[in-house]
Amino acid sequence: SSSFRLRNDSLNAVRLRRVFDLFDHNGDGELTAEEIASALDRLGLGGEKSEIVSAVSSFVPEGQSGLFFEDFEKLHRSLGDSFFGGVDVEPNEETNEEDMKEAFKVFDEDGDGFISAAELQSVLNKLGIAEAKSLAQVKQMISSVDQNSDGQVDFSEFKVMMQGIVV
């Protein structure tokens, strides 16, 4: 959906860098078509590998085997323009709030209005993040933003956390 494309440039840049880092499975700073295909498969969004290779290859500079972050940004911009028509929405409080709600829903898997340690661990596992293997580490992540100490992250705590990322 178009709501996946955040209207806040700072959040979008942070999100895109995080996606690049998560997809770069071997951590070499170069993202191959195979790494992209593998990450999409882990997220349940897999596509035809030949289509992914074709889309990525035109953005890989000569002499490289993959995309550096700057190349990945160009690919993302190209795909974004294809999927979203290149329409830039002027950010305002209402659209930022909607973006936050959409992002929150990704983590709030059961839709109860809270992100539990189990839900966070599940999403982090899908993304292949090593910290997800330890429930203790996931609980520590929760406690670092859990202002009311209920062991969960509610929407207001999530918004504070996201605003802290931008600052």
TrEMBL record:
The record ties this protein, via Gene3D superfamilies, to: EF-hand
Query: Keyword annotations for this protein?
Result: Calcium, Metal-binding, Repeat
* SUPFAM superfamilies associated with the record: EF-hand (SSF47473)
Which Pfam family, just one, is annotated for this protein? Answer: EF-hand_6
Q: So which residues are the signal peptide here?
A: none
List residues of the EF-hand domain: 11-46, 95-130, 133-167
Is Metal-binding among this UniProt entry's keywords? Answer: yes
* Gene Ontology molecular functions: calcium ion binding
Source organism's superkingdom?
Eukaryota
What this chain does, per the entry, is described as: Potential calcium sensor.
* PANTHER family associated with the record: EF-HAND CALCIUM-BINDING DOMAIN CONTAINING PROTEIN (PTHR10891)
* Protein name, UniProt field: Calmodulin-like protein
User: What is the organism field in this record?
Assistant: Eleocharis dulcis
From which lineage does this chain's organism come?
A: Eukaryota, Viridiplantae, Streptophyta, Embryophyta, Tracheophyta
